[in-house]
Design a protein that fits this description.
The protein is mainly α and 80 residues long. The protein has a single domain, classed as Arc Repressor Mutant, subunit A (Orthogonal Bundle). It is 50% helix and 11% strand.
Length: 80
């Protein structure tokens, strides 16, 4: 079984461009963004933010209420 650091490194290398982009935007904003604000930041880069966030939640990278974030959801980074 790998250490926490090696697991974290493996997760980070297996991320899609969209997941890395969202993680970077969350880090730039103190680890927390509203869905609408995050959607605006992603708009010129890619579509399907909700689906990407759903996958990221399943991986344990972010947290929000429900299975798919609503427009008023707060997206919180769960890894550093």
């Amino acid at each position: 079984m790998g250490s926490v650091r090696s697991i974290r490194v493996r997760i980070m290398t297996d991320l899609s461009y969209e997941e890395k982009f969202i993680l970077e935007k969350l880090k730039e904003n103190g680890g927390n963004l509203g869905y609408k604000q995050l959607q605006e930041l992603c708009a010129n880069e890619f579509e399907g933010v909700r689906l990407v966030l759903k996958k990221m939640k399943e991986k344990g990278l972010v947290e929000f209420d429900g299975m798919i974030p609503g427009f008023s959801a707060d997206i919180t980074l769960t890894i550093q």
